[in-house]
Write a structure and sequence with these properties.
about 400 residues; alpha+beta; Alpha-Beta Plaits; DNA polymerase, domain 1; Dna Ligase, domain 1; 3 domains; 5-stranded mixed beta sheet; 5-stranded antiparallel beta sheet; 13 strands
């Protein structure tokens, strides 16, 4: 059975949402960038701003010089997440398998659903119309026999348009396109590949598809085979549904923004104690740890660590958390938000060992910390969350 893949996306989601809220921005040059730092880089650029020479990744100060009438709006992550969730509620009704690409973009595998919803292009048109009717957001839709062709087709058209690449015409469709039109080709790891292709004057995908594979391997090494397949419109990768990882998290909103290391660590220690207390109450353990810091200029940094063995005790996690905090908090800019997540949750099953390799002093310290944690659990349950809090000695 031939595969039928649909890529549906809302181009520049934050810009579309900003214009949906403020109708005066619909015809104005608009960019999305943090407002607190003049050196920040642009994240999204509207068509009107592009006509003035403004590009994604450009410093905001340079963009203002190129386009004095430029309007700037900060990214709104909660609103984008809400819009993305709304989009997925529509997608689920038509696609048995779907894969999130990025906020506002979804890959759908509608193979075998022809009798239910019609051909893949009909499904794409139906999704487009429903999104416009319900949320007033215009999207693009690319249809193809694989993910690469569908995503490439969606990137070449305007909002509310649909591009259907029929089975067997993949190479013909990809051949005239520039190498730079490939999804993901602008990742840092591909810079050397792009430079070598430019040196060889291989500008189009047709040029690459017609080049002998052994000659490409001499120049591009391990990237040659994959790039040759892409140039011919070949992509066997499946549409992978989102994987649900059991986790527990807590977000700390800092009002006002804060830069004091000791105060921030105290807030994290309080959060860790609450999460571990919940784990013990639910008879669960975790094997992973994640910390996300959002600065006042809206830049986010996420660090992760593995927790071995699985545990629900603060003493086993606090050292890793402190290390993550030191890795993430490298910029001397105030923080606006911190999110602590305990991941890989599973049922409580702590098993003793016949040969404990911990030094006697360390084992004694761990036992005392566990008894203290249980005592604090009882105090918090009886007297409330603010009864006891972490502090520091002067």
């Amino acid at each position: 059975m031939d595969r039928q893949i649909v890529c549906f996306a809302i181009p520049s989601l934050d810009i579309a949402l900003a214009r949906l809220t403020d109708s005066s921005l619909r015809t104005r040059p608009l960019v999305i960038a943090p407002l607190n730092n003049p050196r920040t880089l642009l994240r999204e650029v509207s068509r009107e701003a592009e006509q003035e020479g403004v590009r994604v990744g450009m410093p905001l100060t340079l963009a203002r010089r190129l386009c004095p009438s430029l309007r700037v709006r900060p990214p709104d992550l909660p609103r984008a997440e809400t819009a993305d969730a709304s989009l997925r509620t529509v997608i689920r009704r038509y696609a048995p398998t779907w894969e999130p690409v990025h906020p506002g973009a979804v890959m759908m595998d509608v193979t075998g659903t022809t009798r239910l919803f019609g051909a893949a292009c009909d499904v794409a048109a139906t999704v487009q119309q429903e999104i416009v009717t319900r949320y007033r957001l215009e999207g693009v839709a690319g249809v193809g026999s694989n993910k690469l062709v569908a995503q490439t087709a969606a990137s070449l058209i305007e909002p509310s348009e649909l591009c259907d690449v029929r089975q067997g015409s993949e190479r013909l469709f990809m051949s005239p396109l520039s190498v730079h039109s490939l999804p993901g080709i602008h990742r840092p790891c591909m810079r050397t590949v792009l430079k070598r292709l430019d040196d060889l004057n291989l500008r189009s995908l047709g040029d690459i598809a017609e080049s002998p594979l052994d000659a490409l391997e001499i120049v591009l090494g391990n990237y040659a085979g994959q790039l040759s397949r892409w140039a011919q419109g070949i992509d066997p990768t499946p549409v992978l549904p989102p994987v649900s990882h059991p986790s527990m998290d807590e977000t700390i909103v800092l009002e006002p923004d804060e830069v004091d290391d000791a105060l921030l660590w105290g807030r994290l220690a309080d959060s860790l104690q609450r999460l571990c207390r919940t784990l013990r109450h639910q008879r669960r353990m975790c094997n992973g740890l994640s910390l996300t810091l959002r600065y006042s200029d809206h830049r986010e940094v996420t660090t992760t660590a593995r927790v071995i063995p699985d545990t629900c005790w603060e003493i086993d996690i606090s050292g890793s958390l402190q290390h993550l905090f030191q890795r993430a908090f490298r910029r001397r800019i105030r923080l606006r938000l911190m999110t602590l997540s305990l991941t890989g949750l599973n049922d409580f099953a702590e098993q003793g060992t016949l040969f404990d390799d911990r030094p006697p002093g360390e084992q004694t310290t761990r036992n005392r910390a566990q008894r203290l944690a249980l005592a604090l659990d009882r105090l918090h349950e009886r007297f409330g969350e603010q009864a006891i809090r972490y502090g520091r000695r002067r």
